[in-house]
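Bench notes, afternoon.
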Amino acid sequence: MNVKSKLGIWKASVAAILGTCSVAAHAELNINFSHFVRVDSAYRTTSKQNLNNQRTNSFNNRTAPRQAYVPPNIVSLNSPLGVVTGAGETSGNDWNVPLPGFSDPVTRGEYIRDGEQELSYLSLRLESEMQVKFNRNFRFIGRVRAAYDPGLYSDTFDPGSDILQDPAGNGLIGAGGRAEIYESEPNYYEAIGRNGRNVNPLEFAHENYMVDFPALMFEYKTGNLTMRVGNQQIAWGQALLFQTLDVPNGLDLRRHSLLDRGFEEFSDKRVPRLTFRTTHQWKSLVTDFYVSKFQPTILGNANTPYNVIPTQFTVQENYYSGGYDNKIDGGIRFKADYGSWGWQAVFASRYNPLGTFRWAATGVVTELDQASTFGLAASTAYAVKLPGCDGVQNPAICRNSDSVGEALAKTPFAAQPGGVLSADEWFTYAADVRLDGVDGLNQALLGFPDLRDIYVTLSDSYEESYNQLNSLFIASQSFRGFIEREYHRESVFGLGGVYITEAENEWLNQIIFNLEAQYTPDRVFTQKGLGVNFLEKDEYILSLVVEKWTRWSEYFPAAYLVGQFQHRSESDIVGRHLSGYGGTPTGVPDGIPNSNYVVLAALQPWPERKYILEFATLIDTRGGVLIQPLVQWNVGSGIIAEFYYNYVQGHAWGKPTDNFLDTADWADELAMRVKFQF
């Protein structure tokens, strides 16, 4: 479907609603407003920190060994000319000849200032809603949300002053069109595509503030038919903390990531989208249909408190450059209840909002460190090679570019400050983000052959990759990796069933059993080595939700109890493929066959709802635990205060890198929200 056709659908949808909504002469205009102001904050209660950022990198205060080795493709006994004429394939550990005098241990903190971040989150938030009812059939709903982060953190990263080896004081140079994200102080809110535009069309954002519209739509109701057109969110499914059938919207993870109040589910996280939606009820059958503009999940930016992508890597967002801003999603749900039984069926044709990541060419010319003896020697050796060898992979005697920097520009690596400084750092972070450090280097070489031009070869072992990487890092001092984000269309099929028990026994009566299943054929995942060819696998997800309301005494309102279980065949709870699980700083991942999660939660209101006590826990059955107790206090006069604690243990049992929560093991915090509603 071309863009013109898509716009035609939108125009027709709007006309269909507006054309049936002429205001009757006897109509009475009714306008309602509601508002709240809220302060959100979170304080770190552990010595652990988010290791994905520059000033809190785990290697800032650690010395890592580095030794340079002779590239095996410079001299080979397999060639009568003494050079390698093949494509760089190796056998065994070919990087095994150390260069005497080129041992260069490195401490990252000597080049990047370190620091601590005690205050994890602080935000002032305003939300206002207006409903305009024109008549009994037609109304407008508008909700605006504004957030401001003053950035009052104990140590805020500033590349201009915190990267010590940059003689010009410019910090990161030429970050590939993302200067707002990587070359300045932390940018808390802007979600920027490769062309510098915001990926959300109805959002206004800058470094410290954002304004968006969770709802901005017209609604028309007649009989059993409801139509909505405009910016909106769609919530499907019943699961808490799980998105099994909740597939229409991506998530916005900039504001406190997934660490907000658990019982809010994703009501504050779903990315609003321009959508045309109809809901129709015929007897007990409800049909829910939507067509919407594709909008991706939004991740936290580099050096912000809840960033999940190591800042040694530059992410190129291809939402615009890949043409995804013109893509359309659609879906339909059938739902019906018959006494104690119910069912639902879901189908969605969508672009997966999580997206995938792969190596990308930097397009940035950065030369090796000329102050390094090894970097100068490598640059000189490259310059004396014969030029004009395009298409010939014979790195010992010829070159494809005028300089090492120009060759690197055709690869995913740039000799820039603020990157990876040692093989130890490379493999540690690969394990942390569930990637394969050996395959990562190999996939970069396979996808970008110009790496062979600077002596990089395929690795057969951890040791070979380790020695090769340290050789590269000594020559460059620091390599930044460039990756790009892509999106893929998929067909999602879902089924759900519900049963409510009836029994004389109070504990067995009115228990709600909800079973949801999702199946997606040929789902596309990030390859564990960030290969340019993505991984495709059929995936199924099963979720069981058991709910019950019960009263402990006549003086207290009913308490809500819920237990959940989810099984995923290919990915973890945030969509990473399981083949990247199980790596260590000294070994490659062996993967896990599936992932399983348990949620236990309870909510108990006090009389007159003066207080609400909540408890929620997420358990990764391979050894991770998130526990969140919460107290909500209705102070009065429209003021509500919430206090809760997030405790994360990523290695309660088992192997840490075999569970999801190990990647958030640093997130222990005491959080507070104070809300004034009027």
